[in-house]
């Protein structure tokens, strides 16, 4: 219980952050949670369905009531998802050691002791090349658009919920350019950081 | 010549960045340059005195001529120092492997191939404690003022000359919180990064 440790990984789109996190968790022999797994956990949990109901029962607010202000409908659903995901993240942190990708986990666990907060980045050209290859996008300008669009979504999401700059160095323990050592080299290097910190 | 590598280290005040850089250079057996050494090098070099003269001989500019615009006098001297320092940094990078602290070296060497760009940071409370101990400042609020004032100077200097955010993750290869592993632990960890990258 008290010896659990959590690695949170934020990442630029196309930096290989998710793959790095997955391989890191495998090497450390700990759990790995990305967006879908946390969403699934939220769906499964009775507490979180309750939380959704509670959110539903809040007094109508002109800023969040979809009937009064239709544009905010998505925002309201996002809020509820963010709250349930945050609750799931806090429960995970109590239960087990794991790697958590995205979902503002570094912010959610900001009061938690055994957390290493990592951010993976890479030069734009490398990220475009990576995304082009991964999704078979043949036109570089299209791949670039996709990279910038996804960065924008992540930035907007993170900044909305944390009031902090996405990908900023604030409160991060390690920010690393994955192009320097490559995916596997970066995994090994971060594993060293974890080993040194937690004597794993 | 072609196998030289340079480690640039930016750092928050009180993060131990300079000490880390010095110990890293010792362990790697390469040169170490901080502000004073680079200034001294600039003074010694004939080329740089020439450069100062050239700067002096530039056509009067209402934005930089101290007689037309007194407030810019300091700025003009700073500009000349920045140019000479930048020249010295580029010469160093051609001549030898070394660690360079501050002086916007990451920006100056942005086109240089064998450069690792590192930034050292630490939580504010840790930096205040460090500065209090180092300079025997007994009142914590005074130490805090000193830390924030020096950060402000570095931010202002960096942003003025590079048009980039100081301490931002942009273009950095590694940003690390020195409180996680401590000074010596951080030195060893960064040395690993250098070894892996340059097979030193």
Keywords:
homodimer; 200 residues; alpha/beta; Rossmann fold; 5-stranded parallel β-sheet; globular
Please explain how this structure is put together:
Two copies of one chain form a homodimer. Chain A has one domain (about 5-200): P-loop containing nucleotide triphosphate hydrolases (Rossmann fold), CATH 3.40.50.300. Chain A has eight helices and five strands. Chain A has helices at about 15-30, 35-45, 45-55, 75-95, 105-110, 125-135, 140-160, 180-200, and strands at about 5-10, 30-35, 100, 115-120, 175. At the A-B interface, strand 4, strand 5 and helix 8 of A face strand 4, strand 5 and helix 8 of B. Strand 5 (about 175) of chain A pairs antiparallel with strand 5 (about 175) of chain B, so a sheet runs across the interface.
Helix-strand topology string of chain A: EHEHHHEHEHHEH
Query: Helix share of residues of chain A?
Result: 55-70%
Return residue spans of chain A where pLDDT drops below 50 for at least 5 consecutive residues. Answer: 55-75
β-sheet strand percentage of chain A: 5-15%
- Helix/strand-derived category of chain A reads alpha/beta
What gross morphology of chain A would you assign?
A: globular
Which CATH class of chain A is shown?
A: Alpha Beta
What is the name of the CATH superfamily of chain A? P-loop containing nucleotide triphosphate hydrolases
Greatest contact between two chains: A-B, 20 and 20 residues
CATH fold naming of chain A: Rossmann fold
CATH architecture of chain A: 3-Layer(aba) Sandwich
Order the strands across the largest sheet of chain A as they lie in space. 2-3-1-4-5
Q: What's the number of structural domains of chain A?
A: 1
Question: What is the average per-residue confidence, as pLDDT of chain A, rounded to a whole number?
Answer: 81
Keywords (chains A, B): Kinase, Transferase
Pfam family, one (chains A, B): Cytidylate_kin2
InterPro entries (chains A, B): P-loop_NTPase
GO molecular function, one term (chains A, B): kinase activity
